[in-house]
């Protein structure tokens, strides 16, 4: 990965900030991450975040395509839904609330959301809460996006070691 010109930093209301676009499995285990500036839209790096995941299998090619993607309203955009539909992946994304004046521009039926499956999204929210306890991630001491992403990956390793190899619950 080449270093971006903005180093994963962007201006938002609170000043300089970064976003970590995470991909987790259904058990809350982190699988991949992408760093962007805080001003970037969530859906802008959706494809890149999904492509960052490659799960090795015992036989054959690594698994790169999930059965379903559960995301929040920030990912309710036509390009995201089209990308998922094209790859035959179920999109579990609730529609955004839009003003009545915008409703005439949206074509076709309103997308259906499997809210039973959407309730499982809390696993990534819990993982994000856990990552906020990692001081180096919360404060971003690293200047470069590659270094910061490396620290995010170290936090993933710490999570896995604590979850699967710890004697204490």
List strands and helices in order, with pairings.
Layout: E1 10-12, E2 15-24, E3 30-37, H1 46-51, E4 68-70, H2 78-86, E5 90-92, H3 100-103, H4 115-118, H5 122-131, H6 135-139, H7 145-165
Parallel strand pairs: 4-5
Antiparallel strand pairs: 1-2, 2-3
Structural overview:
Strand 2 (15-24) and strand 3 form a beta hairpin. The radius of gyration is 17 Å and the shape is globular. The strands form two sheets. A three-stranded antiparallel beta sheet has the order 1-2-3. It has a two-stranded parallel ribbon with strand order 4-5. The protein is built from seven helices and five strands, in the order E-E-E-H-E-H-E-H-H-H-H-H. By secondary structure, the chain is of the alpha+beta class. The mean pLDDT is 83. 35% of the residues lie in helices and 16% in strands.
Keywords:
169 residues; 35% helix; alpha+beta; 5 strands
